[in-house]
Write a structure and sequence with these properties.
seven-stranded mixed β-sheet; Rossmann fold; single chain; binds 5-O-phosphono-beta-D-ribofuranosylamine; alpha/beta
């Protein structure tokens, strides 16, 4: 068994977890353990069927499910989630396609160590259906933003952004795929920069 990293990273997912995969692979390829004492120690999902959980398990990473449907309200869900996260004493908590709005208490608890990736060029298109909205607005460019999480949805300091063109005839799916390939680059980059900054 490998030693626990001094700076544990916990990743929260809800779905396919491709950003989570990109982060785990970057952590290994770019030797975050040796360079920064950091490593991904756990992947936690609010959905039992999140595809990414299987991949994380195969990698020997601890996984947990805190099912929001088993909790009466946001407060009790967030309390259970915090308990699962805090068991790992994380230096960073990374939201990677985690599709739940978090309570202000949760956000305050992880202030300074809670990061998200959002599939738009913030401050444009906070919220859902970002790609469809960018196409409908006639945007020529779209993109993604890695940002610190504050209690205001999709706000907080921007750590990294990537831009892609919106091409003639683009569907939301085609644009989403183009943006996602950039997400896989900028999320690890932003996290590595934070780790390097100490
Ligand atoms: C990404 O586009 C992310 O920005 C958004 O949801 C998608 C999740 O993709 N919040 P994945 O689960 O990382 O594959």
């Amino acid at each position: 068994m490998s030693a626990l990293p001094a700076r544990p990273i916990v990743i929260l997912i809800s779905g396919s977890g491709s950003n989570m995969t990109a982060l785990v692979e970057a952590s290994r390829q770019r030797r975050w353990a040796q360079r920064f004492g950091a490593g991904v120690v756990a992947v936690i999902s609010n959905r039992p069927d999140a595809v990414g959980l299987g991949w994380a398990r195969e990698q020997g990473i601890a996984t947990a499910v805190i099912d929001h449907k088993q909790h009466a309200d946001r407060e009790t869900f967030d309390a259970a989630l915090m308990q699962a996260i805090d068991a790992h004493r994380p230096a960073l908590v990374l939201l990677a396609g985690f599709m739940r709005i978090l309570t202000p208490g949760f956000v305050r608890h992880y202030e300074g160590r809670l990061i998200n990736i959002h599939p738009s060029l913030l401050p444009a298109f906070a919220g859902l259906k970002t790609h469809q909205r960018a196409i409908e607005a006639g945007c020529r460019f779209a993109g993604a933003t890695v940002h610190r999480v504050t209690s205001e949805l999709d706000h907080g300091e921007y750590l990294e952004q990537a831009v892609v063109p919106v091409l003639p005839g683009d569907t939301a799916e085609a644009l989403a795929a183009r943006v996602l390939s950039q997400e896989h680059m900028i999320y690890p980059l932003a996290v590595e920069r934070l780790l390097a900054a100490g």
